[in-house]
Amino acid sequence: MRSADEREKRNVAGILFIISAPSGSGKSTLVGELRKQLSGVDFAVSWTTRTPRGSEENEREYNFTTREEFERMIAADLFLEHAEVFGNFYGTARHSLDEARGAGHDLLLDIDVQGAAQVRASMPEAVSIFVLPPNPKVLRTRLRNRSRAEGAVNEAELYRRLSEASREIENFRQYGYILVNDILDRAVAQLEAIVLAERYYRNGEAIAYRSRRVLEVAAACLQANSQERLKPVLEAFGMIGDSRQQELNFEEDSDDD
C-alpha cells in the first residue's frame, strides 16, 4: 500500500468515511486499530459540551467546550455536522475536513446517526459504515464494563443507552457498509478492506498485496450483501421475525462478569 507521503505527492483526493454505531459497539476501538494499520487516515476529534469521563483528556477523546461556545460555533457555521444527544451537543468542525484534504488524506468521522444524515445530505459521496454489536447482551456488557472503568455504573443511564441502541440500529439501511463487531480482529480487517477498496475504486490506488481478497472482503460488507449476516443481529434486537413484538431484556445476567 502507498504511504501517506506518496499519496500526497500524487494529489489524491481524500475520501470522507462516516462511521456510526450505538454507544458501546466498539467503533472507537476499530478506528484506533485501523489507524495503526493504514497511513494517510486522519481522525476528526469531535467537539462536545458534555463533561469528561474517567481518564478522558481534552483534544484526545473530544474537544470539550461550554454550551455557550458551542452555540457560538453553530451560529458561525463552523460545524460540518452537529447534533444534540442525551442532552449534550456533539459536532465535527469543518476545518478537520479542510486540513485532511489539504494533506491528501482520508478523514474518518465517528458520528451518530443524526450527524451522519447531515453529512450525507451535503456530501453524498461520503462512504458510510454502520457498526453493529452482535446482540443486546454483548452490548450491555461492554457498556457496563466501560462504566466501571470510568469509576461508576449508572444503571438508569445504562438502560437509556441500551434502549437508544435499538432505535439507532433501525437506521442501518441508510449506510453503504455494515460491520458486525463480534470478533475484533475480523472487524478491523473488514474495516481496513473497505478503506483500501474505496481507495482503489475512487482513486485508482493499487493494493500492494492480497488485492482480490481485500476487494472480496469489502464487497461482502456492503449492505446489499449483508442480509444473512444481519439476520441474527436484527432478531436479537427484536427487529425482525417473531421477536419484533418482544420487549428486550436488558437485565444483567449472572455471567456478565
Short key terms for the protein model shown above:
257 residues; 16% strand; 4-stranded mixed β-sheet; alpha/beta; Rossmann fold; single chain; 44% helix; 10 helices
What does this 3D model show about the protein?
The protein has 257 residues and is of the alpha/beta class. It has a single domain (4-242), classed as P-loop containing nucleotide triphosphate hydrolases (Rossmann fold), CATH 3.40.50.300. The chain is built from ten helices and nine strands. The protein has helices spanning 4-9, 27-37, 67-75, 94-102, 113-122, 136-149, 155-169, 184-203, 211-220, 227-236, and strands spanning 16-20, 41-43, 47-48, 63-64, 79-85, 88-93, 106-110, 127-132, 177-180. Strand 5 (79-85) and strand 6 (88-93) form a beta hairpin. Helix 2 packs across helix 8 (184-203).
Mean pLDDT equals 86
Counting DSSP E segments of at least 2 residues, the number of strands comes to: 9
Output the radius of gyration: 19 Å
Q: How is the main sheet built?
A: 5 strands, parallel
Domains, number: 1
Unreliable spans are 243-247
Strand-residue fraction?
A: 15-25%
